[in-house]
TrEMBL record:
This is DNA-binding transcriptional MerR regulator. The lineage of its organism: Bacteria, Bacillati, Actinomycetota, Actinomycetes, Streptosporangiales. It comes from Nonomuraea dietziae. Transmembrane segments: none annotated. The keyword Cytoplasm does not apply. Pfam families: HEAT_2 (PF13646), MerR_1 (PF13411). Residues 1-69 form the HTH merR-type domain. GO terms for molecular function: DNA binding; DNA-binding transcription factor activity. InterPro entries: ARM-like, ARM-type_fold, DNA-bd_dom_put_sf, MerR-type_HTH_dom, MerR_fam, PBS_lyase_HEAT.
Length: 334
């Protein structure tokens, strides 16, 4: 069969067949009297084998080894092809993500595109300073795709950069809340923590709703951060978690401050005081926990808290009695 016929039947161009010949991959078995290449059925079978191996990503050199080296074992090469393919897919996925983010920012011209790309690259820089500047620039200079900000906020380990990213997200409105909500369900504890911290800094009703839902999150760290944020927003649902934090000594000073903020609402002050008093009456509570609860009463306004402190100043636990006496003097001096 002449080269033209082979090209038509195999789908491999005559030019490529000549290239295979020059490399020694497929040498025609014979020649016609006029000197034209003549391929046998075995030659054509080899051409199909070459095309199959090329479709797997093998180079022509690797194809030659696979077909001609009796000691060639494919397993190692296949493993290498798998690795290369995964790397290529990862690179293409990263490119697709970057393009989507650029598109989401709705650039008006190529200058905008270049600026967005520069910010995205800076956001992934090794230097914490560069990442922080990129986060700040996303608000002050050019809009950063919110998906990129959320991804960065959920993965950032440097506290200064993380703070800048949370601030940038807060300025961007509620566009990232859905993605942050997904972060609350992440299998990684650190991601869940960063997600709730970011939500806590977004001052809108949708964020408040997410924080209220987070009070039932299986992760106690998420529940505590949510309660602290809700306390400053005047959401009474946070009271039980805040009191538990005081009892357990987990960020208890901030929890007491959040209770105090809630107690500025007269409708909640007596409720908080009554709940604290009920905890203090527990006979199984450790002395240190009772002292913390007594301290928390200091900033709860109203006669209920004042009467409780007066009673506690005579408590059998000397530490509790001294604490109650001290905070009662501070209340009376105000």
């Amino acid at each position: 069969m002449l080269i033209g016929d082979v090209a038509r039947r195999s789908g491999v161009s005559a030019r490529m067949l000549r290239h295979y010949d020059s490399l020694g991959l497929v040498r025609p078995t014979g020649r016609t009297e006029a000197g034209y290449r003549e391929y046998s059925s075995e030659d054509i079978r080899r051409i199909f084998h070459i095309e199959i191996l090329r479709s797997l990503g093998l180079s022509l050199r690797e194809v030659g080894r696979a077909l001609d080296d009796p000691g060639f074992t494919p397993s190692e090469l296949v493993d290498d092809l798998i690795r290369q393919t995964r790397e290529r897919i990862a690179a293409e996925t990263e490119l697709l993500t970057r393009l989507r983010r650029i598109g989401a920012a709705e650039p008006a011209n190529w200058e905008d595109v270049l600026q967005i790309v520069a910010l995205l690259q800076a956001l992934g820089a090794e230097s914490a300073g560069k990442r922080q500047r990129a986060a700040l620039s996303s608000v002050e200079e050019a809009p950063m795709p919110v998906e990129a900000l959320v991804e960065a906020a959920l993965s950032e380990t440097d506290p200064n950069v993380a703070g800048a990213l949370r601030w940038a997200l807060a300025q961007s409105g509620d566009g990232g809340l859905a993605l942050l909500a997904e972060g609350l369900g992440s299998p990684a504890a650190e991601v869940r923590k960063r997600a709730v911290q970011s939500i806590a800094e977004i001052p809108n009703p949708e964020a408040t709703t997410l924080l209220q839902d987070a009070l039932t999150n299986p992760d106690i760290v998420v529940r505590r951060y949510a309660a602290l944020a809700l306390g400053t927003r005047g959401v009474a649902d946070a009271i039980p978690t805040l009191i538990d934090m005081i009892v357990e000594g987990a960020n208890d000073a901030d929890a007491a401050d959040a209770l105090s903020a809630l107690a500025s609402d007269p409708a909640l002050a007596d409720r908080i005081a009554t709940t604290l008093i009920g905890c203090l009456a527990s006979g199984t509570m450790e002395s240190s926990a009772r002292r913390r609860l007594t301290q928390a009463l200091a900033d709860i306004p109203g006669t209920t808290a004042s009467r409780a402190l007066a009673d506690l100043s005579h408590d059998q636990d000397r530490g509790v009695a001294l604490t109650a006496t001290y905070v009662l003097k501070l209340r009376n001096a105000r």
